[in-house]
Amino acid sequence: MLTDDYDPHRGRMLKVLDQNGKVVEKALEPKLDDSVLERAYRTMVLSRAADEKAVILQRQGRLGAYPPNHGQEAASMGPAMALEEGDWLVWAFRELAGLLWKGLPLLNYYLYWMGNEEGSRYPPGLNITPASIPVASQMPISVGIAYASALRSENRVTLAFCGDGGTSEGDFHEAMNVSGVLRTPNVFVVQNNQWAISVPRSRQTAAPTIAQKACAYGLKGIQVDGNDLLAMYIATKEAAERARRGEGPTLIEAYTYRMGNHTTSDDARKYRLESEAKGWELRDPISRLKAYLISRGSLDDDREKQVWSDAREAVEKAVAEAEGFPPPALEDVFQYTYAEMPSELKTEMDRLRAELRDGDKG
Amino acid sequence: MLTDDYDPHRGRMLKVLDQNGKVVEKALEPKLDDSVLERAYRTMVLSRAADEKAVILQRQGRLGAYPPNHGQEAASMGPAMALEEGDWLVWAFRELAGLLWKGLPLLNYYLYWMGNEEGSRYPPGLNITPASIPVASQMPISVGIAYASALRSENRVTLAFCGDGGTSEGDFHEAMNVSGVLRTPNVFVVQNNQWAISVPRSRQTAAPTIAQKACAYGLKGIQVDGNDLLAMYIATKEAAERARRGEGPTLIEAYTYRMGNHTTSDDARKYRLESEAKGWELRDPISRLKAYLISRGSLDDDREKQVWSDAREAVEKAVAEAEGFPPPALEDVFQYTYAEMPSELKTEMDRLRAELRDGDKG
Amino acid sequence: MSEMNMVSALNSALANLMEEDPSVVLLGEDVGKDGGVFRVTEGLFDRFGGNRVIDTPLAEAAIAGMAIGMALNGLRPVAEIQFMGFSYLTLNQMISHASRLRNRSRGRFTVPMVMRTPYGAGVKALEHHSESTESLYVQIPGLKVVVPSSPREAKGLLISAVRDPDPVVFLEPTRSYRLFKEEVEGTSFSIPLGRARTVQPGSDVTVVGWGAMMPLIAKAAEAAGSEGISCEVIDLRTLSPMDSAAVVNSVRRTGRCVIVQEAPRTCGVAAELIARINEEALLSLEAPVVRVTAPDIVVPLPQGEHYYYLNANRIYDAVKRVAAF
Amino acid sequence: MSEMNMVSALNSALANLMEEDPSVVLLGEDVGKDGGVFRVTEGLFDRFGGNRVIDTPLAEAAIAGMAIGMALNGLRPVAEIQFMGFSYLTLNQMISHASRLRNRSRGRFTVPMVMRTPYGAGVKALEHHSESTESLYVQIPGLKVVVPSSPREAKGLLISAVRDPDPVVFLEPTRSYRLFKEEVEGTSFSIPLGRARTVQPGSDVTVVGWGAMMPLIAKAAEAAGSEGISCEVIDLRTLSPMDSAAVVNSVRRTGRCVIVQEAPRTCGVAAELIARINEEALLSLEAPVVRVTAPDIVVPLPQGEHYYYLNANRIYDAVKRVAAF
Ligand SMILES: Cc1ncc(C[n+]2csc(CCOP(=O)(O)OP(=O)(O)O)c2C)c(N)n1
Ligand SMILES: Cc1ncc(C[n+]2csc(CCOP(=O)(O)OP(=O)(O)O)c2C)c(N)n1
Ligand SMILES: [Mg+2]
Ligand SMILES: [Mg+2]
User: Fold this and answer.
1) Which residue of B170, B183, B205 is in closest CB contact with A218?
2) Strand runs (DSSP E) across C204-256, as ranges?
3) Which chains would you list as touching C if contact means 3+ CB atom pairs under 8 Å?
4) pTM
5) Do A206 and A78 sit in the same domain of this protein?
6) Is residue A160 within 8 Å of C69, Cβ to Cβ?
7) If you measure from the C-alpha of residue B255 to the centroid of ligand 4, how many angstroms do you get, rounded to a whole number?
8) Which of A107, A216, C20, D74 is found 20 to 30 A from D171 (Cα to Cα)?
9) What is the pLDDT of residues D218-243, one digit of tens each?
10) Can you list the domains of chain C with their CATH numbers?
């Protein structure tokens, strides 16, 4: 088992690829079809392109505060690739690539960050929960989701994400611990991107790794190079299979880096050296996968260009659609409070409708 | 260091005495004066006597719901013995022996469980916080107390207790983690008495030991025989010294057993085998210390009888005092809400005084 | 039909629900083998097994969070929080997720969960075991808050709460758990949420309360009645969504109102009712509405509890004062 | 004196306090190097060092709990919670300990801490970043709740809050952080807690609000004034203990009242004020008191925020309606 070979207490990090796309541990290389790898590459590129666009849109006042994903694409997508149809994905707010792999339309994503609840009306049957802003609060929820699947013997796995900062919250702890006791079919991925806004990983916890926190809960734990798509994929695959076999949850630390600001409202230069990010540029997850694909002969420069231009086109299309999307009507902000609108609330709505003047619309 | 020799990952539990009072690890035997050991024995006996009395009083309707301490005397008192004057003790609700060692008058203790807030008006200068009923909520508070001491370079340690059940709460986690990061002078003792009401330790967490949870926070951790006063003492002593040197907090698991019901409202026979408690009777912490003292020649049967009769006398005196203590006046339930009573609250108080009829007093 | 106290009525409701619907599960501290500290879940572990009657670790936020996740994924979880005083640990989950997931996802995800918890003073309990902080929940859009006042009400309302498509906070008056028995159907039946109940019609003073206050109100109303003051007694039952219309309509007729609230005065449900009466029936008022509430203090420990906890005398006096205004 | 916006006024208050009293410490997420997400603590880390301006891990319950412990042990901690929407995680510590330790220990232990947090909608923020749930705190006996409405008020009230012997929840209106500047003393000065401020005397309608509502009220009152309706404008300032006497006294004179509350309607501070007006000045009322509040819904995301967030027009309309009743 990878979790034995890479026992966090021994301080080894799981890696499959080096930065030149060379496989460092041949035995670990997953057997993935070219078509899957190509789709993976496309999706990561789409994520990168969509993310860059979101930052630009925010600067232009066309989108609200936004948390960039740049550099973390493999950390969310590798795990998503290890899921099967019907498995659940519980994200925090920085897992775009994983969402895209799972099938979330970009339109939803943009609508959400543009401040329209319709963005979180996910397509029916897509088992992805909406973004969860209160840090780590999604973790106990993911345990409940997994429990329900297990109770119905559905053989489904629930994959949940949080950040390194999230591990300090009580919710993280309670979720890990309960899940260990109830042996729910969960896989927990901590995107350790080294920062929680301005707080460095070293000040988030005195534990040398996040992965070793697994031992507090009787979980399997493993630290993985989060910029290595293949490593993230195989670690999650093993964990998901274990979960499916009813052998309990796993905590995966994806060791990665937040290349951008915390959000578009943040200025990382206030608290960290630019050289740090520079160093991580050399470990870019997309370049690494590209090198691997090229070395396998599954990608060449032309196709690579095509992937990018397809991505940019898809992004522009989604943005246009999102910007053309109608803003909520007055009824919309009321009608989802309860399944059936209580009469008092209806009265409030009618009163508000009467009170709002034309000029009040925004 | 004990925490190295007894690294929780290696599964060894620290013990100094066996049940016959024989020292199992000569090198570990602390050099304590006879007078100290005698005081320790007296205090444990006083705790046991007071505790048994409280259970009786509850049955007679003279005291409210009460959590018995029987069997856990060494687990709270060993740590208290390792404190120095001025150090802080933050208790949960099952640490009577430690409180008595630190100097809390029995009167306070009875008053509190008899439902009078005056019980928690601790003598000035005694650095003990009041009982904390919401499980583990005292842990983050203990970190703040320790931080304040350290900021003023007072060289004081804060010792905080919670139960095995308490380790599942978010508050426990947040406290351990923050304390690890800030290296506050804390010693945390988890009284693992194997049960949290009806939930056995094995269902509280899937981690094989509580002590190993330390590793999630970069703390030192150690599992100690909680019924061995000397072991609890030396483990805490080492931890307190480390804390005083600014080398950070320690998590001590006191492996012990709740001999009684959870509280006087509980009936443990509903969920556990009586044979389990029977087995633990053979590991009684008071008998163990007694055997040690006798083997050292520091105690004999006569003196032992005297200790018990002194204890019972002290208990009767405290109970009489507590029962003679005046119940709160109407003003008392109002006046400590704020430093200065807001005028609206004063009005409420006056209104209530006017509204209460004589017959309403109870 | 059989005589049940509130504990057995709740137990009967849960048993019916679990028989009828395999998606109903219970979770919480000591709800399994132990049957709950108040015995509400007694026997259900043996009957339905540990997978459906789940003893959790001691972690309230996780209990609430798990219940939310279960509800999102097709179950109907009934979470027990051992005492309302420990429910504050669930507030982030309840406010940030339980109450909002429907709205957040435009109805794609819903949270048909129930959080049961005993509340209220008057049983000489330890600190934190006597809280009546319902207004923390009542003010949260997206949550429903229900408080039964008798065994039969408890059963019918709990069944509705569990079947309800939205998250319900179900507050059980500790003091009434074993206070009295009444005839309750053994089979399942429901009492709709969101509708107040007129316990007794009357013409002089409207007296409104809920939960453990109802037996006290009944006593006070009877005493007032014997002196010729006719009380219309309303059991609010569902605090959210609040059936203030029932109260307002009654006050339109009586012109006088006493609201009895176990909780401290400030920003409680009584204040909200007064605000709505003011808004909708001010001109009908013949006297200021009177609140009979606990004072704005911490619940005293048992020896001082009588200063805090209401009694029938104080309600009766208030009714007299309002009637005489 | 210099021109300050609310952020710089708060910063100046903290700097003064930390200079004067070595027991004042700041703690929270990103309050150190980063100077806080709204820059309220900017420069203080460099000036007073990391031991007194403490960057904590991401753990709100621990931030509150630590602050309580620090306060118990002689410090005057000022904890920052990044947004009010994350303060629910502190509620157990705030309710169960901060508000109660004085009472629990009969005054032996006290908790002179401040929990600062930005609150309120109107800045087009993400979900959970626009909450106005002050009533969760106002209803807790033992806590004080303060909301400043201008830079100078912010400084004077924060200084009082930090010097106060009791725990204070200090709510900073996000929308007003940089909305306007005014002259503020550079040295320390204090504005007493617990006293409402009459911003503008008037005779026809009492208009009450706090925090970010005050600039809207000023605009509405001005418009009403120009039509001959004289508004008495009251800034409540301290929501707990609530200076309802100031409001009641004003209403006794004007007979009419509009209360402006950013929070949703139910069980808010406005309801409490109405209840107290009802109790103490019912006979003076010439019209029902009108609440202008957000509806009982989840704060919408930015595209729908205008349905939720109040504006001067709606306040003005309410004033006109009340005046014409
Ligand atoms: C409970 C809570 N507290 C504070 C915040 C404000 N906040 C948003 S993201 C963030 C840092 C999160 O760090 P991490 O978990 O490492 O995730 P990352 O942003 O690095 O992806 C903070 C403090 C929040 N959203 N939720
Ligand atoms: C937050 C909270 N939840 C629930 C309770 C009810 N309760 C009181 S003690 C207890 C069990 C505590 O177990 P443990 O921490 O092991 O301590 P022990 O009672 O064994 O000493 C529970 C569930 C509580 N007091 N606080
Ligand atoms: Mg991070
Ligand atoms: Mg225990």
Assistant:
1) B205
2) 205-209, 231-235, 238-240
3) A, B, D
4) 0.98
5) yes
6) no
7) 10
8) D74
9) 999 999 999 999 999 999 999 999 99
10) 2-184 (3.40.50.970), 197-324 (3.40.50.920)
